[in-house]
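## retry 2 of 3
previous attempt timed out at serialization; input unchanged, resubmitting
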Amino acid sequence: MTELLFSEDSYLTSCKARVIAAVTGAIQFDRTVSYFTSGGQPGDHGSLQLADTSEITIENTVKDKETGNILHLVPEDTPLLSVGTEVTIKIDWERRHKHMRMHTCLHLLSAVVGAPVTGGQLWTDKGRLDFDLPETSLNKVDIEARLNELIVRDVPTSTRWITDEELEAQPELVRTMMVKPPTGEGRVRLLNIENIDLQPCGGTHVARTGEIGQVVVRKIENKGRHHRRIIINFKETV
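## retry succeeded, writing output
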């Protein structure tokens, strides 16, 4: 199995790693800083630096649905690396940091709206959450103001782990309806935004809400009965 260094430190931008398996277009390592596509957050891009200083592009990072292995996708014409080869994995930090900022902001949005989440996705410049809400009036101006107030408050975030049994005993921690936190490995990671939000999450996040920067509620969409979508952008990209 691959040791997921980003689970303990989202700010790591590189690490030494050894190849444990390789096929055309995909490589598995013993450890990585590269986040894999999951929970609405895109997988990291970046590069692999070899001992001779040459580099291989990481086009994406994914989790194999059948094996659960973390795969670093590379161009298909890349020569196969031998098992045991040591490389340095480097992520595209500018892209990752935007994902971290937006992911933390979506947790704040979940706290502001306070309804069950039915779906979500984020990109480098925007994010969305879908909520299970009856026909109701969501005030775009009010939501935006409350979000930015929490951001400006600059409260710290932290992660901790609980057991599967502890999570089962606290079902109120789970806000997502369609996607449940991964269980079966004995423990689940929680993201805590101090005095604002606490819920399971395996994604990468900023250390303080102030790091998110100001945001704009771009659109609120009615996607059907009990289905409201809120789309937010970083103010800097509008």
